[in-house]
Amino acid sequence: MTGPLEGVRVIDLTAALAGPYCTMILADLGADIIKVEPAGGEVTRRVGPYQPSADGNGQAPLGGYFQSINRGKRSIVLDLKTPEGHAELLELLRTADVLVENFGPGVVDRLDISYETVRPNNPRLIYASLTGFGAAWSGESPYMNWPAMDITIQAMAGALSITGTEDGKPVKIGPGVGDIFPGAMLTIGILSALHETERTGLGQQIDVSMFDAILSLCERIVYQYSFTGQVPHPIGNTHPILTPFDVLEVKDGWIAIAATTQLRWEALCRIMERPELIEDPRFRDEGARGRHRPEIRRLLDDWSREFTRSELGEKLGGKVPFGPVNDIRDIFDDPHAWAREMLVEIESPGSARKAIVAGQPIKFSRTPSKVGARAPLLNEHAEEIRAEAGARSPRGVR
What we know:
The protein folds into 2 domains: 9-217 and 335-391, 3-Layer(aba) Sandwich (Rossmann fold); 245-332, 2-Layer Sandwich (formyl-coa transferase, domain 3). By secondary structure, it is of the alpha/beta class. It is built from 17 helices and 11 strands. The strands form 3 sheets. It has a 6-stranded parallel β-sheet, sandwiched between helices. It has helices at residues 18-28, 64-70, 83-94, 107-110, 115-118, 150-156, 177-200, 210-217, 219-228, 262-271, 276-279, 286-291, 293-304, 309-316, 328-332, 335-339, 382-391; strands at 9-12, 32-37, 73-77, 98-101, 126-131, 205-209, 245-250, 253-258, 322-324, 343-346, 355-358.
């Protein structure tokens, strides 16, 4: 691997989406991720979809879910419930910079792998935990022992309360943001701690609660309620303050538009060949337009339905914030996604064709990030990892 984190070793005890997404980012940035799995493999190994096998008589061993967020990692099987597996993990941790875990409440204590247990073996170790509602040391929560999933966190932390149609029915946000955003926040915490450890020589604990991360993502509802006393509710595709900011129907689908500043509103009026709207007192500034959102929506609907996505792309593209509502077929046909390496081919063992996964959006000029390799087969790297652990001195002693 190359990248700004080359030389950083991470012991990955995570499963499902939130934790593996965090360590996926670290892998793309060049860290050596050692994925420790139980004998049956991490749970998402059993989740499809799968590609057909090369001979057509079965399926390739790596599913899309697992490939997408475990690319670039190495796999070793350890039974942490046994003295042998526990001792082997501690040996690996002596050589590591970071441990990442997202076990359920109480599991690290039952396995005797808490921060207090492992810290004496490696004082430089950064111990990063992703929890549903937080660890006791970082702030007691009445929900600390509750299990957490994407949809329940979206519900409890406010995201569902402002996502949905104008009739008030909540709608889950499409991507698993209840997992992915906390995972990304944990990555930021790890990078910050690595920087601090270089200065002090000491590791520390990190705790990111899924609830806390999603409430942070929903920051506007906090200040809206605090400032006005009003409870924000779902308002469809528009914005509670700015307009026009919406999704419009066209002849062959949908587009999104956000001409919210004065200059962009004026540009939109001219493109619509309605310059008189610029001087209309109902629409004279941002505040007035916000108060007359329904009238603006009717004007835009009447106009947009006369055109196709492509025609409006010619009129609006590069002039006001505009985008067609793309499905994944459109994105696969979009030169941007390929030029920016946001669609990346990786090997798919046992299949006649490669897998395609989402790329890494963080770009570097000198130490490039990259999707370096496919996801590992179960226990694929056990022999080399054990050999390295025996030959490698603890971090800070090399």
